[in-house]
Write a structure and sequence with these properties.
Mean pLDDT: 83
Distance between the termini: 21 Å
CATH topology: Arc Repressor Mutant, subunit A
Low-confidence stretches: 16-20
Number of strands: 2
Number of helices: 3
Largest sheet: 2 strands, antiparallel
Helix content: 40-55%
Structural class: mainly alpha
Strand order of the largest sheet: 1-2
Radius of gyration: 12 Å
CATH architecture: Orthogonal Bundle
Order of helices and strands: HHHEE
CATH class: Mainly Alpha
Length: 82
């Protein structure tokens, strides 16, 4: 990936993370959304060789924190940074 922006932020301990910070997968997902706005969960899963469920779990955290929003239809929409 070219032009990756490093982001550091603390999120509430929503899913039992021990220290309340985001994990490495979530950092990668966030950076990928920054560099490719409108990317889908399936494309993110293929990019990082993770399951779609793992990606959706991370995206749900971002949506709940109002960091990321889903725009568009179910088939053709994608995730954008707010």
């Amino acid at each position: 990936m070219r032009g990756v922006i490093r982001v550091t932020f603390i999120r509430p301990n929503l899913s039992g993370h021990k220290n309340g910070t985001i994990n490495d997968t979530e950092k990668l997902i966030y950076n990928c959304i920054v560099s490719s706005p409108g990317i889908s969960a399936v494309a993110l899963a293929n990019e990082f060789d993770k399951s779609v469920r793992t990606i959706m779990r991370a995206l749900k955290h971002f949506v709940n924190l109002n960091i990321v929003a889903y725009r568009g239809s179910k088939k053709t929409g994608g995730y954008y940074i707010l």
